[in-house]
Amino acid sequence: MISSKTDFLFNLFIFLLFLTTVTCEEKCSSVQCSDAGNEPEVIYPFRIKDLQDAGCGYPGFNLTCNTFDKTVLKLPQSGEFLVRKIDYTEKEIRLYDQTNCLARRFQQQDLAVNLSPFKAFAYRSYNFFNCPPSISDYNNGTRTVIRAFRVPCLSTPTNIVAVTLSSGSSEDFNSTRLLINGGCEMLAPVTIPIPFKAITKIYSYDFSSDDLYLTWVEPKKPEENRKKGGKKFDWVKFATIITPIIGGIGAIATIVKLICMCKRKR
Fold first, then answer.
1. CATH code, residues 122-194
2. pLDDT for 23-78, tens place per residue?
3. So where are the chain's domains?
4. Phi and psi for 77 in degrees, rounded to 5?
5. Fewer CB within 10 Å: N-end or C-end of the chain?
6. What pTM was estimated for this model as a whole?
């Protein structure tokens, strides 16, 4: 009788130990804000607060899910951006504005990327212009092509916002001159992070319709975390959980033993 009770309690202890270990490991598995919305999978060094333990990610790489199940990254002094994609191999994160107007964010504030673990692949300076609607047809009597792109989210029927690259090249200088001659007002230049692909092909990047591309340096990952979805085992936390269980099992075993001894004396 005592042997069967002891076997039962021992098996219960092993089950609880296994359950605790599995639970700790599952907290660091890959997660998404939404399975249906093509949201990026989040693994180390990133983590989603409220879905993963603090040990599953590295400080500064915290993400959240908004009320629409979109993945959100908050940059210091720059506000929140939605995450479109995370490429863990190339260490590239693609961000976009929830109002689909990155140009406004660039124009209104300098991104404080240096205050975060992220950095730009490179930077380029752009000139913003407020132009009359007639600029679309303006060519100054020539067939000269103006190297500029229109920003739809900042433009209105009475004002077109155009952007040119401020590289110092003769082509960009001529584009600026033609826009000013066409009645455009040049605003303050803005320094903007560009993706890796645009370093050699700068005119391939149109931030009025594309994303914000940032990279990061991979932080050191503890050896215990290198297993898939794993995290460093917290022995203190485990002891806090398991000690009451062991105490309870011991108390039950003692009570069972006393009852059996009393029955034998009778």
1. 3.30.70
2. 444 468 899 999 877 899 999 999 999 899 988 999 999 999 999 999 999 998 88
3. 2-23+235-265, 29-121+197-230, 122-194
4. 65, 5
5. C
6. 0.70
